[in-house]
What we know:
Blueprint: E1 2-9, E2 19-21, E3 27-29, H1 31-47, E4 57-65, H2 73-84, E5 87-91, E6 94-99, E7 111-120, E8 126-133
Parallel strand pairs: 4-7
Antiparallel strand pairs: 1-8, 2-3, 4-8, 5-6
Helix pairs in contact: 1-2
Amino acid sequence: MKVTVLAIPGVVPSKKNGRANTKTGRSFPNKKFMAWERDVRKYVKEQGFSRVTSYPCRMEFKFFYPDKVRRDMDNAISSILDALQPKKATVSGVRVTVDPGLIDDDSWRHVSDISAKGYLDKDNPRAIVEIFQERG
């Protein structure tokens, strides 16, 4: 079994609750979330993590919060999963992958088992993500 462990510093922002709306009614993730996502992608590249190759995989999330403020772990999980997927952009009318990400997708066929736990750590808020692959 292959295990990949990511340690993401700070409190994970919610992509779902942190959206900026335009006058046309479209919404986009806010700048704080976009900066956080960019930092996570940079961290994954700098640490040299290998892409997940064996699906379905299992993921365990441990969130260490600096205080007892109410936070939804499902939003944090969703934010992390989105940051670990391929990043696409439209270039000259064509959809291209600009960052391959760590996982292909967060569908049940790719990530079949997710568990999460929350803890209090005032001095070192962070998220620990463990990805378990059967082989690969």
